[in-house]
Amino acid sequence: MTKTPGRFDLFDAWMNSPIEARAKIARGQELFNNPNPRNGRSCNGCHNSANNGTNFNDALLDIGAASAEARTPDLPLYTIRNRATGEERQLTDTGRGNVTGLWSDLGKFKTPTLRALSARVPYFHNGIAATLDDVIRHYERHLNFVFTDREREDLVAFLRAL
């Protein structure tokens, strides 16, 4: 499969559908593709491979999934200290930092494809989200996205449709 940068456009034809389930998916797609008016960020900013959702540049990102704040009781918690600065981070998984040894790579992970996402429960590399709603709420807590209940429902409908 060849990756190209771009947006999801799978459900563009449903934007004005009289069938509410289709319209909800299309609204969710638009929310995903466009900047969140409350923080200026876009889901498509990181999940930017057209109709796939991986990161076009294969960038590894720290979205807080391995943070102490996102930790579930079944995950370990490691304290890592930077020898040069004395700074400490608590993580459930060091991510790319475990491979490179770089402080700046701690907690960074690959952006997975979003296609067939609903079949891959639980979510995130460490299973911290049991539902797609939990995934969206994670982004609200850790990356300052803000969605209304309806927007959250529309995003879940879109992600389920992939």
Topology:
Blueprint: H1 20-33, E1 60-61, E2 78-81, E3 88-91, H2 97-100, E4 109-110, H3 132-143, H4 149-161
Antiparallel strand pairs: 1-4, 2-3
Helix pairs in contact: 1-4, 3-4
The N- and C-terminal alpha carbons lie at a distance of 17 Å
SSE string: HEEEHEHH
Output mean pLDDT.
Answer: 96
Number of strands: 4
Instruction: Give the biggest beta sheet.
Output: 2 strands, antiparallel
- CATH-level-2 architecture of the largest domain: Orthogonal Bundle
Q: Structural class, from secondary structure content? A: alpha+beta
Question: Class of the largest domain, according to the CATH hierarchy?
Answer: Mainly Alpha
Your description of this structure?
With 162 residues, this protein is an alpha+beta fold. It has two domains: 1-59 and 111-162, Cytochrome c-like domain (Cytochrome Bc1 Complex, Chain D, domain 2, Orthogonal Bundle); 62-109, no CATH class. It is built from four helices and four strands. It has helices spanning 20-33, 97-100, 132-143, 149-161; strands at residues 60-61, 78-81, 88-91, 109-110. A hairpin with a 6-residue loop joins strand 2 (78-81) and strand 3.
State the gist of this model.
Helix content is 27%, strand content 7%. The chain has 162 residues and is an alpha+beta fold.
Essential attributes:
Cytochrome Bc1 Complex, Chain D, domain 2, two-stranded antiparallel ribbon, elongated, 162 residues, alpha+beta, two-stranded antiparallel sheet
